[in-house]
Amino acid sequence: IYYGTVTVTYLTVATPSITPNGGAYLNSVQVTLSCATSGATIRYTTDGTDPTASSTFYAGPFTLTASAPVKARGFESRYNDSTVAPAAFTVNSTPTVVAPTAGASRTQSK
Predict the structure, then answer these.
(1) What is the full DSSP assignment across the chain?
(2) What is the pTM of this model?
């Protein structure tokens, strides 16, 4: 019979990758998340908060049509949770070009 202390060390889930890793985009950007730890699930947020086990489950690429911070974390029952992966996305809309109406004239001052 052993009455000593047993120390159990858990591995940590690899930090997820966010592709692309932030930046500025026109109209929209498709975001893909991945994790190198086999069997891990990824949860993410787009409101600036750190993901928890109840955050949005990543099921596949998603599209941002507005600026947002994306944060992702990996979870696996036999592992410690990963660190949070952050990326900041700026999404700008296409500028509207107003064409002159037919028959309009332009004058130039001297």
Answers:
(1) ---S-------BPPPPEEES-SEEEES-EEEEEE-SSTT-EEEEESSSSPP-TTSEE--S-EEESS-EEEEEEEE-TTSBPPPPEEEEEEEEPPPPPPPPPTT-------
(2) 0.80
